[in-house]
## 1
Amino acid sequence: MVGTQWGDEGKGRVVDIVAKECAHVVRYQGGHNAGHTLVVDGEVFALQLIPSGILYDHVVPIIGNGVVIDPRVLLTEIDTLAAKGVNCERLMLSPQAHLVMPYHQILDELAEGRRGDNKIGTTKRGIGPAYADKASRTGIRVEDLLDPEHLRSRLRGSLAEKNVILRDVYGHEGVDPDRLADELIDEIAPRVAPYIGDTVGHLHEALHAGERVLFEGAQATFLDLDHGTYPFVTSSNPVAGYALVGSGIGPGAIDQVIGIAKAYLTRVGAGPFVTELHDEIGDHLVEVGREYGTNTGRRRRTGWFDAVMARQAVRLNACTEIALTKLDVLDQLETIKVCVAYEVDGRRYEYLPHLRRLHDKAIPVYAELPGWKTDLSEATERHDLPREAVEYVSFLERQMGVPIRFVCVGPGREQYLRFAA
């Protein structure tokens, strides 16, 4: 399952729908910079690292090797869920996943502040620096928590360089590696250790037994480090293909790719946004859709649905179907627009232009459809939808070239319907 836009499509919501038919839910990339919000019996669950399937007793939630983990955030999330009666003992954590350290967060914030007008829009959670350490082979992995002396040695080596940068470039006092090691060894490791397991072996045994496994991506296609709107992207690969790398399975194991798309479009932070709205309709979408970040509280930018992006996402992820969320947010609109193509220097594009610089020059080509001016929140079947809503969803299906399987009409667990057979 993968987001087809810039994140915040409601992936956790749809994972919760599909997870009840699965035995395992795997988070395969990203960190606690991505939040998934679920509403169950009126109670809100805001998840950051733990897979959304945790709310089903029969599901084994797995955090794969492709994720970067702030262990303090993980433990806080476990404690919060436990206080709400959710048992997290089934959680499995890959020993090869990398840890987000306090110095990653310090560097993230200092570097973003130094960029001035060229800010990327990072959440300052240390995700990028943690992935950078992973690539430069100086990172700290989950399994290092099980070997105190090795952990201490790794921290000293990593911080020998980091402290020079912190002091000489940013004027920061630096981080004491031994004090950090003591904290991790005494407070963090004993609590994290019970969750560490052979996630790769477990997944292969499950697949061999014919059990259903759901791979849950964080962020979304156009925040992908390679295929997104670079440099305004995340530091990992949310596309479906990375589910293989980030969990340790082969490509033959994937037989279904569900793309999640919001019925309109949102984005957090800087970067191109061809269909962005700067008017009262944009404000309306923010307020009705409660478009504020789960983790950061930042107001999201809003715009009309972009079929150009959606087609590209279907292509990049080999989507077999789409789950459409937040259709109900459009209930009060008289007319609704859909971007069906871009025009750049007189040329029409139906997929994203292959040169990133052309995105900034793109002019949206819109189709306009009638709104339905009807409350959809009680709809449970396709025939409950007004004709105009059916026509809108069907139009999006034709634009993307794949069936829309689910349509969500509210935040509640049961507020969805099956659209395609």
## 2
Amino acid sequence: MSMGKKSASESTRNHIMIKGMSEHLYSLGVLLSLFILCIVISILSPRFLTLDNLMNVAAQGAVNAIVSVGMFLAILTGGIDLSVGSVLGLSTMVMGIFAVKLGVSPYLSILIVLLMGGLLGLINGLLLTKLHLPHPFISTLGMKQMARGLALVVTGAVPISGFAKPIQFLGSYTVGCVPVSLFLVMVVYILMYFFLTRTATGRYIYAVGGNTEASRLSGINVSAILNLVYTISGITAALAGLVLVGRVNASYPLAGTDYDSDAIAAVIIGGASFFGGVGKIGNTIIGVLLITVLRNGLNLLNVDSAFQTFSMGAVIVIAVAIDVWRQKVTKNAAK
């Protein structure tokens, strides 16, 4: 009996060790890929390594980086949030209505937008946990269409511009030559790192993604965790919308159209698994950088937008295929 327990314990330790090594090696591989991509683009386009372009890459990546935080949480639980791009777009329009059309205080307008993002995210969670829809794909796909439709309806599909300086601050201002949005990304990722690694709720999120039924049997309120995850995803999408509004000093109903797919690609490239329970928030920023650098490089090289779209789709397929392969290798090695 004791031999059996010892064998099971050793098997568990070996699985954890192999899983950790797999994640570490994968992270190094992604970093190497990013490094090689930067070298290739810098050779093909001398403008890539200029200070102005690098700061532009940082500003471009900030929006996707913030959106990807919510997407990371959703994927970590074994789900997905297809609505982040539409929630971002609706957030920009709501900001325009309150801050410009109605003349509401910029700070109150920001608070309203963040609360609205959280509410839409909570609805995503409730559709999953209360209506028991079969998968977050369904609930968030529905929210994606509804939020985009609302963004078009409430403004008559007309862009809004002329925002006050406090609203432009996050997206347009710099400290020296460094965009303020970059500091915001650092704060968001540091807070999320401590939340996921230093709190019981963060550990519960990993547990739910690893084995939902086992988590429920162990006493974890799975519904509450999922509601929280999708609420946070809505808030981060709205926050990203605020950064985008500040960056372009305008809101438009089709804002954020590609951000859901970019966020999925960044999270999966960063090592999170569609199977749930696997991933590190710090690695997500590597995926964001790879996606942003690739987009920037294609623009610098004047690559046709249609091919750029194709490239992003190919990146997602390759990343998911690598994730499936990595999971199989880890399981086989642990046997």
## 3
Amino acid sequence: MPDHAPTLVTASASATATAPVPALAARAARTGSSPVRDILALTARPEVISFAGGLPAPELFDAEGISAAFRDVLAEAPRQALQYSTSEGDPALRAAVAARTTARGLPTGPDDLLVTTGSQQGLTLLATTLLEPGDVVLVEDPCYLAALQIFSLAGARVVAVPTDDEGLDPAALDEIAAREKPKLLYVIPTFQNPTGRTLSAERRAAVAEVAARRGLWIAEDDPYGELRFEGEPQRWLASFPGAEDRTVLLGSFSKVMAPGLRLGTLRAPAALRRACVIAKQAADLHTSTVDQAAAARYLADADLDAHLARVRDAYRERRDALLAGLPGALPEGSRWNRPAGGMFVWATLPAGYDATALLPEAVRHDVAYVPGAPFFAGRPDPASMRLSFVTHGPAEITEGLRRLRTALGAAVGREAA
């Protein structure tokens, strides 16, 4: 055969040739994993005392009451409890949440609410229905990490609003809103994650006024509001003049009942709520029927307020143990706050310290925390850290702080050498 003869490609040979698979969507490529979830995976060893995760204390779950609710629901109405349900959510559960919301000062009816698969889904539905790629979302700086992930996946441009020891700065919010023309403000006004800060009534009124004047939606996330240890409760942003018709209130059962139920609620004006129902239909049809029915039964039969009183007492004691031990655990010149509730203390090491760089040494000493830097949408503070005080009892907290002191001392000593 001549050298220049054409090459014949058989059908079997061509079938083995493969083209590369398409690339991931840009939204997936630009959105990183949550550092908190990654740290939790690294510190899953039982000997680690972790101040990292915002994990409710499992020994405080009302396992008996929740088990009874599931047993009763499955015994009395198994066909309904195990069947498909409506996207809006279990009517009895919505009625119970509406009653609790009204009792806390925000008149609410069952039809004002959508049941979600955790409040995290509520924020995802909100981003889906409100945000076009390139829309601006304003967030507190620092901000809840998962919210930053959600807005990144939605293609939004996240702009940080400065905060101080009292939380979001309303004057800065007004200035940035005028410049950036945002569509949405996301805020945790009570016992914020990661800082534990709470906005005063004056600042809440100012935020509502800015939102009304600048024409933006407010996503008010309230997972921690019922975990108050001291002081008077603050009104929801949604109740302030100017905010009533533009605020979405996100609620959660994770911190007051059990996070494994994955139950939350979304309260929103009718048109937006309807859009979120349609988005939920596309996402998962509806939240678990049996979990909703059991939660509704629990709220009807158990005393959630008495349970919460026990939880608050335990968390207050744990917060106090953490605060008492921080002066001896952190380097001289460190700062931290004293939250009136919630789950977190926000601490800042002296200038020159890098909490992210120090974390591996802490883990080697079987203690962990979350560096503060990933929570910032703007310029991060490398010396900051978030410390959760709810997962461990006072004795373990004291031991964990001893380990932290040793770890930080070892790291600093190694650098000096």
## 4
Amino acid sequence: MKRFKKTQKQKRAFTLIEIVVVLFILAIIVAMLVPALTGYIRRSRKGKYLQKADSFRTAVQSVMVELYGIGPGAQSGVPNIPGQTGGGGSGGDVRWDTGRGANNNAEAQGWGERILNLMGLGRGDAGHEPYLLVFGVGNPTYYPEGRPERYTVYYLAYVDNPKAPAVFYVNGEWIYTYPRDDSKVMTTRHGIRNTIVLNGADIPLQLYVVSNRTNIADNFWTNGSGSLRGHSEPHFDG
């Protein structure tokens, strides 16, 4: 009995200094873990956006092949008129732009909507379509009819929502930096501003806007934080 009482007397509570030291050590551990955890969360989100962007690239490529199958492929601002000599058409625009100042004709909207439909989206899902979706194929004024460049998707820019980073498909790779910030990736050649360099060959692009929810009337490429550049690394901090 006396031995038990002696053991009880030897026990003591933590002092205030010891508690402070423990809390200080825990604070240091948390401070070290938070950046790593935040980085993991960001990488996870980027991976999710990249998967969606790649799915859109597949949908876009499918529609461009379909469009080329009924005519010579897409041409900006040109309607596709089937039944011409040889069964071809005169091209066709691809657009589904909800942005301010959008200028869409019914056919352009139809092809753009076809892309969204393949992703399970449609006009009734306004607000669910991508914040920005732009893609590019070989420029039809540079490549004659019959060339696969006219329907091959070489470029795609995707921003899922106003708080998401931009994802770019260019030169067969996915990147998070704005392509025109690097002249070795995208530059002006042959009088065409958007030209990529693929395996040493110049590929002038024809670009199409399928979705623009930035509310920027024209220059959603570089105009402020809501633009493609604004959502790209290292400009974007979301």
